[in-house]
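[job 4471] stage=fold_predict status=RUNNING
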Amino acid sequence: MNIEVTSGLAILCSMANNIFISEVLCYLQNYFGKVPRTVLSTNICGFYDETEIGDAKSLLFTSVSKMNLQFDDVPRYKQRKAGDNKRKLDVDDIMTMKEYIDLKKVTLPDFVAKNIRRLPSVSPSDVDSYALAESVSDVKAKLAQVQSVLKTLSENQASLADTVSTIANAATSSKQPTGQNYSAVRADQPSEVLGDSYVDLFANKDEQAQWFLPKTRRRDNRSIRRIIGGNNSTDLKVKAVTGSKEWHIFAGRLDPQTTTDDVTELLASKNISVVSCKMLKKTEDWHHKYAAFRVVVDVVDKDNVFDDCAWPVGADVRDWWFSSRQ
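[job 4471] inference complete, writing structure tokens
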């Protein structure tokens, strides 16, 4: 009987040496690996104060250092400066050490809670539901604020409309000549009656009146007739000049290593007849980034040459613009 009592006391003493009191580490030890790290970090930061988190961090790193682990990459204790971000940084350090110990398969001492009221009553997996409910509440509050602002704007707009109407009526009364009954100021009346301000325009409520005098435009309804001669008889003394059989285009934004032969071969592969191809001079610094050409093709290919499939992606192809000097 004495031997059994002695053995029981020895077991209790051994267990006491491997048990530490920390509500933070107790909570972490029970839920680590069961819920995402971000959820645990958010719960710890939101539930525990800065002192509790700091004490838990010191206890965890001290416990690990006493194990004399034979590893060279054990996370080091970092002293964080006081500030708004200290709590989050300390929690990140605790999570990093916990993940390292779990990766190395090292058994930590048991951490227990002395004050169970310092353990969050909400399971980490239920945090999303509570966060969603809180978000909905925030949205409702913001919508109420928006409705209040809209109501204020509507009231201000109505008040402004009344003010403008009052000013317009007063201006109309002051502008009406004595002895005449004018219901509205019309655009066809003399300028001294129309007035020179926009208040006079606002006072004009007659549907037939106009704010501004319309500009009269003369319209010429005569049609212009045009034909293209079609008599190809050789006996005619009057001859027409035949049109050009060439079409000029500009081809730019090509690779600076492109040559005239490259352009000619490219169009020839598309059955486009090239009359001539000439590289344009590079007179500016930015010209050296590209190659540009003046290409002359047969007039029958003036539409075929503008097929985007015939040119590489990014090429700039346009009709050639002739100045007076060309």
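[job 4471] summary: Residues 1-15, 178-212 have pLDDT under 50 and may be disordered.
[job 4471] exit 0
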